[in-house]
Amino acid sequence: CLGNCQLHTSCGIQKCTTDFVSFTSHLNAALEDFDLEFCKALRAYSACTYRNSKVCRGNLVYHSAVLGIGDLMAQRNCTKDGPTSSTNPEMTRDPCNYSGHTEAREHQGGEKTPAPTYLFCGLFGDPHLRTFKDHFQTCKVEGAWPLIDNNYLSVQVTNVPVVPGSSATATNKVTIIFKSYQDCTEQKVYQAVTDDLPAAFVDGTTSGGDGNTRSLHIVEKVSGKYIEMHARHIGTTVYVRQLGHYLTLAIQMPRELVMAYEESQDLQLCVNGCPSSERIDDSGHLPLPVMSKLLPQGSAAHPASVYTLETATTKCHEKMLVKDIYFYSCVFDLLTTGDANFTAAAHSALQDVEALHPRKEHWHIFPRSRGGDVGRDSKFFVRLGLVCLILVVFL
Minimal CA–CA distance to 394: which of 276, 308, 292? Predict the structure, then answer.
């Protein structure tokens, strides 16, 4: 209605609405402080309409805005009393809040700056890697490898063999370094190993920056099993979980910061994927092993006979209804290890994608067919069925 309704020249509702849009256009719903900042903007919007209540008394746009503000405050559980966004948004950008950086540049330069683009990377299972480019790979990468290594964040994982005779590995150690950044935070190091997933950095603190800023902090979701790290100053969120004996990672980070690295930092699995020599899969196609030939007699590892193709498929389908690459990674992991915890790992990895990946249409990945199109009817599924048929015969 804003473009069609005639506003009284003395009514300032259009300015109120413009300020509200300015306050909220940079906010990211995936970040933890979204509700706090959105409520501050709503209270500022409400105060602005109140100041204009007399001159806008007969204006339909004004009354629609007042009703809309009330509805939004109820939906977000906003209190009527509390802090408000400044009436001069260009002067009050928090230097330790990345989502406000582009807004500040816009006001300073006078040109419209597009909203920041966020990217996602995840690692789980045997291990399966989803890169920032949405490429899906299964790799060996035994030992210590960098997932991310840029000017703001370093993430390194250590992978160990899962089953004797198989090249599959899984993550048992994670080291994360948030590098010092202006006045927002000093360098903070986080480290987790199997059966020790702390809710604090190695120095014993749970946040970075002073008490007012808290631009970086750790939230414990499930004691010893699941933590989240929120770094407002670089717009980055990290999830770390332990499922069974192994760890999983999920990371959301702005594209411009992901790409801020030197030539010497080019070995980053999240950016460039695994080296070809480390790939287990063939362009996304998982070659399932014949486990009875790989496991020696009396092996202490999970026996291959725990799962057949049918029971592994049924088990994975209990958690994942869509038969995408996460589902088939689950089947691969069960037939490779016999460890049911890998089902939970694949399921939680998909949940993390849904929580952190900004584009819903890209949540599910399907292997590529001969024609290069993504879909269910690809040679991957034919190959998977044939190899698993052989697997059942041998078992």
Answer: 292
Listing from the earlier edge strand, what are the strands of the sheet with 246-254? 136-138, 128-130, 118-124, 246-254, 236-243, 226-231, 216-222, 207-208
The span from the CA of 59 to the CA of 325, in Å, is 54
Residue pair 126/162 in contact (Cβ under 8 Å)? The answer is: yes
pLDDT, tens only, 143-180? 999 999 999 999 999 999 988 777 789 999 999 999 99
pLDDT at residue 287 is higher than 80: no
The rounded distance, in Å, linking the Cα atoms of 188 and 177 is: 6
Superfamily per CATH, domain 118-289+306-362: Mog1/PsbP, alpha/beta/alpha sandwich (3.40.1000.10)
Q: What is the DSSP letter of 240?
A: E
State the DSSP string of 39-85.
HHHHHHHHHHHHHTTTTTTT-HHHHHHHHHHHHHHHHTT--SSS---
In the predicted model, what is the mean pLDDT of residues 175-194?
94
The verdict on pTM exceeding 0.70 is no
Digit-coded pLDDT (tens) for 106-144: 444 445 566 789 999 999 998 999 999 999 999 999 999
User: What is the tens place of the pLDDT at every residue in 77-116?
Assistant: 999 888 887 655 444 556 788 876 555 444 444 455 667 8
Angle separating helix axes 341-356 and 325-337, nearest 10 degrees? 160
CB 325 within 8 A of CB 366: yes
Which pLDDT does position 385 carry in this prediction? 40
Which of 153, 157, 120 is CA-nearest to residue 140?
Answer: 157
Burial letters 209-234, b for 16+ CB under 10 A, else e: beeebbbbbbeeeeeeebbbbbbbbb
Determine phi and psi for 64, rounding to 5 degrees: -65, -40
CA pair distance 29, 69, nearest whole angstrom: 18
Nearest alpha carbon to residue 292 among 246, 338, 333: 338
At 330, give phi and psi (nearest 5°): -60, -45
82 contacts 39 by C-beta, under 8 angstroms = yes
